[in-house]
Design goal:
With about 240 residues, the chain is α+β, with helices and mostly antiparallel strands. The chain is about 40% helix and about 15% strand. It has 8 helices and 7 strands, in the order αβββαβααβαββααα. It has a 7-stranded mixed sheet with strand order 3-2-1-4-7-6-5, with helices on both faces. The chain is globular. The chain starts with a helix and ends in a 6-residue tail after the last helix.
């Protein structure tokens, strides 16, 4: 995809997270790499509400730019710390979505936030999740960004204890679909916990088989995202500008 296409998809993700109530004030941040090494990336401007994001309003940053905070268009410090370090350390993570959705964040407040495989959606994440249980406060220091990037490692999804979630992918559509299903999975798990009854957890073999089975539905994410963008086209003219 070229940069303009990535801009459009990333702008859509912001708008859609508002519709799904997975935004938070003018905080949280999404980014997408536009260079092969991942060091040049697009991200939302500081304190711009997700509902106002358009393709052209996304800022382009260089992860190696030491003067990034010198101008009037400086990014949010925590956004910069998290995204610049992940893009620098892991070029495979082309898209990085960091948010605090209700059920996933609730799971992150538990002493053991493991996503137990109790249905198709929870099993989708079996063996794919990094668990960062070393929360270091507001991520405004480079050292905290480096620690977060290291904690993610080669996983696609990270549950951040006492914090929120980070989901990565090769495309915006791919990462968005994982974030969508992650919140659904965490909702199911939290509701199951709330019954107070024992959970019927799959054994590892069945969980791994179910997770692998999701590969057959890989194109589903693109189809879902395409449909959601068509809704934006009908109801939110100008978001592609």
């Amino acid at each position: 995809m070229n940069e303009q296409e990535i801009r459009v998809d990333l702008a859509a993700a912001f708008r859609l997270l508002v519709r799904m109530d997975m935004h938070e004030s003018v905080a949280n941040h999404l980014s997408a790499a536009v260079s092969e090494d991942g060091r040049h990336f697009l991200m939302n401007p500081r304190w711009r509400h997700f509902a106002d994001i358009t393709a052209s309003s996304l800022q382009r940053f260089d992860a190696d730019d030491e003067s990034v905070f010198d101008g009037a268009d400086a990014p949010d410090p925590s956004a910069w710390t998290i995204h610049s370090e992940i893009h620098r350390a892991n070029p495979r993570a082309r898209v990085v979505l960091h948010a605090h959705p209700t059920y996933a964040t609730t799971l992150c407040t538990l002493k053991d936030p493991t996503i137990l495989p109790i249905d198709n959606n929870t099993a989708r994440f079996f063996g794919r999740v990094a668990y960062d249980l070393s929360f270091g406060g507001m991520a405004t220091e480079v050292s905290e960004g480096e620690r977060i990037a290291a904690a993610l490692g080669n996983c696609d999804v990270m549950l951040m204890g006492n914090h929120g979630v980070t989901v990565t992918g090769a495309t915006v559509a791919e990462a968005f679909e994982d974030l969508y299903y992650l919140e659904k999975a965490c909702r199911t798990l939290i509701l199951a916990y709330s019954t107070g009854q024992p959970l019927n957890v799959m054994n590892d073999e069945l969980a791994a088989e179910t997770c692998a089975g999701w590969a057959e539905f890989r194109g589903q994410g693109e189809a879902h995202f395409s449909y959601l963008k068509s809704q934006l086209d009908r109801e939110c003219p100008g978001w592609r500008d």
